[in-house]
Every structure is written in C-alpha cells, then in structure tokens.
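Standup notes
- HV: blocked on the assembly model, inputs below
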Amino acid sequence: MTQVYEKVALIGLGLIASSMSWAIKRGGLAGQVTGYARSQETRDTARRIDLCDVCESAADAVKDADLVVLCVPVGVMGAVAQEIAPYLKSGATVSDVGSVKRAVIEAVSPFIPDDVHFVPAHPLAGTEHSGPEAGFASLFDNRWNLLVPVEGTDPTAVDRLRAFWEGMGANVDVMDPDHHDLVLAVTSHVPHLIAYTMVGVADDLRRVTDSEVIKYSAAGFRDFTRIAASDPTMWRDVFLSNQEATLEILGRFTEELFDLQRAIRTGDGDKLHQYFTRTRAIRRGIIQAGQDTDAPDFGRVKK
Amino acid sequence: MTQVYEKVALIGLGLIASSMSWAIKRGGLAGQVTGYARSQETRDTARRIDLCDVCESAADAVKDADLVVLCVPVGVMGAVAQEIAPYLKSGATVSDVGSVKRAVIEAVSPFIPDDVHFVPAHPLAGTEHSGPEAGFASLFDNRWNLLVPVEGTDPTAVDRLRAFWEGMGANVDVMDPDHHDLVLAVTSHVPHLIAYTMVGVADDLRRVTDSEVIKYSAAGFRDFTRIAASDPTMWRDVFLSNQEATLEILGRFTEELFDLQRAIRTGDGDKLHQYFTRTRAIRRGIIQAGQDTDAPDFGRVKK
C-alpha cells in the first residue's frame, strides 16, 4: 500500500485510536505514528504493547505531524484542540473521530490556525470494549467513515483523509454535520440510550433478581447488555452534545412504543403482526449490505 | 447417552422443534422421533432434510408417543391440545416450548386427559431464523430450560422431562408460571418489543432514508435488527398472552427512559455517567455465566 501521511499523531489512545494505529501499520499508511493519552497508565500500556511512539505530552506528539486525529471524548475535544493549537505544523490536517459532529465543529474550529486544515470525521465502528488493548487492525474493514468537512475546506485535504481511511479498510461518505447528527441519533445514539435503560430497569426490579436476569438473558436481553457496556464517559458526552436530535428521535420512539403498547392492551393482534413483519425487511438490507452476518444464535458462533 | 423416551412426537416443525430433533438424535435420547406441521410445505421440507418421521396428521404423530411436545405459537396451543387429546397414550407426558406459561397452562390444561401428565416448559434459546431448516443440534447447549409443572404433577414425569432436556445440553430450573412470565417479560418480551419499535421508527423517518439506516447500522442499530427479525406470529402471540407482565415492565421502562431524557434535556451529565456505569456490571455477570461471549465487535467474528 501507499504511504498517505509522513507522520500521524493520535491524541487519546482508546479503542478507536489503537485500532487506527494497527490499521495504519497494516496498510503502511504513515511513516511514523505518535500517540498521547492523558493517563500515565494508558501511556504505559500503549508502550508495553508497542502500539505507537508514545509521547509524554500532546505538544510533543503533534509536532511535525501531517495529520492529527483527536480520539478523545466529545466533551473535551475543544480543550484538547486549544492545547495543541500552538504546536501544529503549517499545512497539517486536524481530524477527529467523535460520534457527534456539530458540537465538535463548534468546539474545535475556533482553535484551528488559519494555515491548518480541519476535516472532522466519524468512523462508524466499535465494540463494547475500551482502552488501548481493545484495538485491532480490522475494526474499520467494510465499515463506513463519514467525513464532515466545514465550508471552505481545501478539497485536497479532504481527498487525502479519504485515501487514508480507505487504506484502513473503510468506505467513506461525505455528509453535512446536522444530517450526520440526525442519522446517528437513529442508528446509534437512541439505540444505546434504550439499551442502557432496559439494562437499568432489569437491574432495578425487586421481584426479579439480578441472578435471574443473568441466567435467563439468552432470550433477547443479552443483545442489549452488549451495547450498554460501552464507555460511560463517551456516551454521556454524546447525549449532552447531540441533545436536539436525540430528543427528537426519542420522541418518535416513545410515540410508536405507546401505539404498540395500546395494541397489546386492546388485543390488536393484526396491528402487532403487521408491525413485526415490516421490520424484517430492514434486517435483510443490513445483511445484504455486509453490515452484519446472517449467522444465527444472535450472531454468536455455533459450538 | 441413555434413551429417555421410546417415542417423542414434535407438533410444529420450526426452529425449536427442528433443533430438538437434531439434539435428540445427537444424544440418543429417543427410539423414534415423529413430527407434524400444519403446512404441507413445512412437512415436505422436513422430509427432504430427513429431520424426523414426518406424519400427515397430528393424531398419527402422537399415537403411542411417550412424550408429545407442542412447538407451535402460543395462540394455537389450546386448539392443538384439543385436536390431539383423543389420541394420547395413557401415561404419556405432554409438554410445550411456549414463551409464555400462564396462558398456555390455561389453554392446554382443560384438554389433557386424567391419565396423561402435563409438564409445561420453556427453553430459553433461539435465533432470529424460523422454520425446519433453521434448527441445529447445539442450540440448547448451556442454555436454560424452565419447567413450569402445574400443581399435583407426578414428580417422576417432571424428573424424566428434566433428564431429557439435560440430555439435549440444557440446564434445567423449575419455576412458578407467574414468576416465569414476569422474568421473561424483562429478559425477552420487552427487549423484543423495544427492538421492533426502534427498527420501526428508523424505517419510518422521512429525513433519514432506509439506505442510510442500513449503511450506517454498525454503530449500534444493527444489534436491534437481529431480534426484530424474529417470527412475527410467535411474537404477536407472546404479547397478547403475556399482556399483564409486559405492560408492567413497559411502564417501568418508560418511567426510566423519561428520567434519562430529562437528564439529557437539563444537561445532567453526572446522572447519565452514573447510570451508564451501573449497567456494565450486569454485562460482566452474563459473560461470567457463559450466556454470551466476551468477543468484541458486537459479537461478530473478527475478519
């Protein structure tokens, strides 16, 4: 493969950054990868597993970097951008991997120097695990990465970032920030909130013990616990910074849920059957698009 | 392994019955397995894949059977019980695999002859696929089967059914019908309803296309589509026949959801973080109990 950037700096060394580092190495996409994490423990772990060239400050990591990727929770993107701004190389590109785009653009843009490109991005990939040891090179293979360039961005910088992500295995689309935030509210943010809520309800019942919930989870519940085990800080920031779209989709969700609840209460079997039939088509589409497998047993490997 | 029954009859030949047939053969648990399905097409398919001895009537299938298992949707259990009652062998056991127990007991019990045992059961296992070709022998391995015997049942009949399910790989617990229906409302019924609703909302939005939902589903949404692709008839019957417990748990769910919604609206990050941290413990319990794997990428196999 071809090198796309001479030096890439990853700020924050969690699941996404560590997967990026392995994917960059797999693809030979950069001459050097540096990294920085605020926690000493994370930096030590990253060094131990030989993830990348770990620096003792963000300033050191971004020095001379052609691409700087902010891989920190959405809520601290602005502070990190402010911290690194004085050390950015002229002509460099700053990007990020945040799950929300309008809020990140508003927080980060003011700190980007005039001679630096800012191309926000969001790779739609992840697992329920966190930290530098959770990453693996194939995380982005056949997953989508949405680039959300701000107005007036140099198209060359966007194309280069696109080539970089394609080199890591991803498909790339370009999207407007507000539309991004609405699409993600549907495909990610509200599903996570609902999963967290369902697990919270189960944990809180007096008449059903936690031990029963755990033992008998194979009947559907366990699929919710997987995404409800995701990183709490990341998700707190997502909801606080994508408030408007999340609340809009939540409103639609509860409206539909109440409608189905009424069908259950009144015994309207036809309505339920019709609804449950319609939702099968989307599933077929997802499998055809290669975004999930058709393997049975809720995706678990057959013994 | 040891034969537990001389002849087992499976009425209904979907995912559960076909998995049972393969698991019975794997374990050598019966001398003969007969089967019947109402649809000619299903019977033809079952014959083609050599699933079991397929009969042209339920009466033929249950004749001389030591164990008859009703593997049909909950809503038709009563009608099937009425149909087979005259042909049941004296001393035989009738069981079922329905996801709801109180309603099945009320529907089936009146038709069970005095010289026949009735031991309702519910194997907590399944996939999102349906039909006689969806079954596989290991479906019940390390999954739980809940036996819900009615008062006055001969303990010998219960023990024999327990040995039969253990022979198919399952763990067996005994539970009271009303508690069963509440536990399953939490671990299965409400999660399915919520998943159906979320998929329905996504399908119905004008500002986000189905194609976008499908392409960008890896961010969480796809985990919901899996269980929302389950059999519509089965699930219609589940909700109509476990109305009370489903509505109770739904009430708790919406109460908690509104509470989190308010936290998002008011920007109460501490509350969100605390909630999202608490739900991780349940996930750990499920993995420790062997009811799911710790494999990342939402359980999909790494490439």
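- HV (later): unblocked. Chain B is about 50% helix and 10% strand. Residues 296-303 of chain B have pLDDT under 50 and may be disordered.
- Next: hand off to the docking folks.
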